Amino acid sequence: MAHDYDVVIKDGMIFDGTRNPRVRGDVAVKDGKVAALGRIPAAAGKRVIDATGLHVAPGFVDLHTHYDAQVFWDPYCTLSGWHGVTSVAIGNCGFGFAPVAPEERENAMRSMTRVEAIPYESMRQGLPWDWETFPQFLDSLDRTPKAVNVLPYVPVGPLLVQVLGRNAAKAGAMPTDAQHGELARLLHEAMDAGGCGWSAQRLPPSGPAAIQRDWDGTPMPTDVMRDETCRVFAQVLAEQNRGVVQMTLTTADGAHDRAHIEELASISGRPLLYNVVQAFEDKPHVHRNVLSWLARCRERGIPVYGQGVTTDAGFTFTFEDWNLYDDSQPWCEATTGTTQERLAKLADPARRQALKQTMPRVATTGLANVVVLSPKSPATMAFKEMTVAQVAEMTGQHVVDAMLDIAVQDRLETVFYAASPQGEAGLLDEIVQDPYVLLGVSDGGAHTKFFTAGRFPTETLAHLVREKELLSLEDAHWRLSALPASLAGFRDRGTIRVGGPADIVVYDYGALASRPSEVVHDLPGGEWRRVQQAVGYRHVLVNGQVTIEDDAQTQTFSGQLLRNGG
Question: Which fold has domain 60-314+421-507?
């Protein structure tokens, strides 16, 4: 028999991503697409993958990433690419690298170091910077080897800086009619080149919710952009009749936030992905109110969808690196600067009273609950795996003194761990069981020394489905693949169907797991990051080619830049 197909996946349990019941059968792949389903002779394939006892499903879609820099030195966009993700969306939160004039490149990299904790030296050495405009940036992405598909949102921060100038953009200046016209023209240009919508993070520039300031202490341009400007951007999507809005919006007036988001979704007529839906053990009303609001939006036909934080990943950090205490000015000031400057400031008794009076939340959990994960000196070893509250009780100190004395003794190398804030009361279950909340928020490529939420697809299947039985496998695969693909504008992806791209995962359901966290030194400039690899992915196919085999990279770069969704 002639080899009719490039690959035949034999005798697997197929979940097609549509929520149809699972079917035991075969999948044939030819020229990067699914060519046939059903009963297919093994001899018909140039290569046969024996999927007996394995699950076969659409590749996972990771909508909230910051791989805008990392993709240039890591074709697999790991962690995501290790955990069955075959397509990622970049350009989230309004942050990005295009359009960026040559004289603004330094500021752009410093901003991404500050707000997304991407190592500066890695960007300095790893970004080719062979672009200025957004279309040129896409051309550079197109040339770059990729083992996953990349869908680009258009971050509006760089647009604001280019049109208004850095100082005016950071001051929240109201654009003139001419400037609004230029902002609209640039977004049209970016969309015509392949952009798939626009993104913005709008947080208060000061006060307790000011959690992400720029490297120089000023607001990010998106934090102070005007509502009128958002309406202009939304109208561009209406005129294009395609694309998506990804937005984080937090002000002192929650009623304004929701009304404005509904307005933008209504103007554009396009899906708006609202970040984030997250459970807090001490404030369960927060996520419940958001879920109720999202349900009301659906009932009224307003396309607003929540992106849920559905992973237990906490933050692992040291005071040598961590600098996201922007909700407290004294802590922000004390934890910025060189390592020696930080050490001197955190050791200074004169600063401690101000630090005690305005304690930060520490990645949404309180200081008292932070765990001393890995002390680094004989003097601090007795506190290993104790909470800061337990250390304070043992030593008779305030929690701030207890924590900082350990950090200073270890010359800021103590590894601390702040757990996820949802606790053990089942609040996360409420988010997971809402059928239209997107799973994940991996933040892949960001906070690389602190956060490993790129494991979320594996965690969904192994923990939320297999162990907790919160979802059926049919529902889980729809929400990991088809739902995010359809909302973000991925054309033809997210399901296994004849004629569709062959983005497929073949995994061992019983063995699926995330490996323990580890530190690896694999970034440009000698920088390190914290990772969690996966167990149980027998094969991952991207556009019909095997990119992962038995949990290992095959160094096959079959990913594509998905201009306008692909």
Answer: TIM Barrel (3.20.20)
